Structures are given as C-alpha cells and as structure tokens.
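Record type: monomer structure entry
Structure origin: computed from sequence
Chain ID: A
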Amino acid sequence: MMTASIQEQKRKRATAFPPATGAAPACGMLDVQWESSFDRLCYVISGPDLAIKNSNRYTKLLDALMSGSGCTEEEILAHGNKVRAVLFFAQDRLAKEGRLSGLKRSEKYVYQLAPVLPAF
C-alpha cells in the first residue's frame, strides 16, 4: 500500500482542524458562514498588518496552524490570501447581481463559504 504524500497529509490535517472560537472575522459586507476553521484561521492570519500590529497574536496563531496542519508559514499565508480572493470575488459578484444594495449600514449578507481547495 502506498503512503499518502506529505501534501495529502497536510490537506487532511487542514480539513480536520478543530473548530475556531471567538468572534468571526469581518469580511466586508459578508457574514461568512465558515465550513472550514482552517480557512477562517488562515484568513485571519493573512490579514494586512496582523504580524506588525499584533505580533503576539500572529505568532500564537501561526504556531497553532503550523503544528496542527504541518504547513509552512508561506503555505498558510498563501492559503489565507486564496480565501481572501474567493471572498473578494464573491462579494463583487453579489454586488453586481444587486444582492447587496438593499442592506442597511449594519447588515451583512449571509454567505456560506464551502471549504477552499488548498494550493499546497
């Protein structure tokens, strides 16, 4: 029997990541319903300036993501940026379809985010 490649093992570990706790991250006009806590945490850590503004939180989150998934910092940040791109284009598409125009200032559009396929 062949053993799974290291990349496959990383993907499996990312899929099995424990549920994220705490307040959901802000995602523009979307109230994202995260199916993958790995996606959510990678989104958070890839935020602009998190490493600079809150280096302790960044380091703690990065350590948890690296030990939990086996991924490198570069892979985690690349995945977070991929999740950000998926959400950016989802919001752009919803706006073009007119689905965001009726929202009040404090309202968000509930958006179900299926797990994002990792690039690693």
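Annotation 1: Residues 39 and 83 are 7 Å apart (CA to CA).
Annotation 2: Residues 27-113 form one domain.
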